[in-house]
Amino acid sequence: MKKLQVLGTGCPKCKQLAMLTEEAAKELGIEYELIKVTDINEIIDFGVMSTPALVVDDVVKVAGKVPPVGELKKLIA
Q1: Would the N or C end of the chain have less CB density within 10 A of its end CB?
Q2: Under a CB-based contact definition with an 8 Å cutoff, are residues 25 and 4 in contact?
Q3: DSSP secondary-structure letter at 50?
Q4: What are phi and psi of 6, to 5 degrees?
Q5: Residue 30: which CATH number?
Q6: Alpha-carbon distance 23 to 64, whole Å?
Q7: Number of compact structural domains in the chain
Q8: Is 32 left (phi over 0), alpha (psi -120 to 50) or beta?
Q9: Distance from CA of residue 28 to its chain's centroid?
Q10: What is residue 64's DSSP assignment?
Q11: Distant-in-sequence, close-in-space partners of 54: CB < 8 Å, separation ≥ 6
């Protein structure tokens, strides 16, 4: 099971990234757990300075932007 974490304080872009990440995971047909990390200290612990960010299995894959679903599928797979 993939562990997908969306890091962000709940801004519109953070919500959009969470929605698109879920869509990408469903299109891939994988088992996943989507966790929204909103605590600023936890976000900083990942070394992320700009949100939103996507973390796949504890590895930061993208930060500071919302990639399209096609790109997210590559990052998750």
Answers
A1: N
A2: yes
A3: S
A4: -105, 120
A5: 3.40.30.10
A6: 19
A7: 1
A8: beta
A9: 15
A10: S
A11: 4, 5, 6, 7, 17, 21, 60, 61, 62, 63, 72, 75
What would you measure as the largest C-alpha separation in the chain, in angstroms? 32
Residue span of the structural domain in which 9 resides: 2-76
Could you tell me which residues are beta bridge partners of residue 10?
Answer: none
Residue 38, H or E segment: none
Could you give the percent of the chain with pLDDT greater than 70?
Answer: 100
State the catalytic residues.
11, 14
Q: For residue 19, what are its two tokens?
A: 């929605």
Q: Please name the residues in contact with 18: beta carbons below 8 A apart, sequence gap of 6 or more.
A: 6, 8, 34, 36, 52
Tokens for 40, please give them. 């600023």
Over residues 33-61, the pLDDT tens digits come to 999 999 999 999 999 999 999 999 999 99
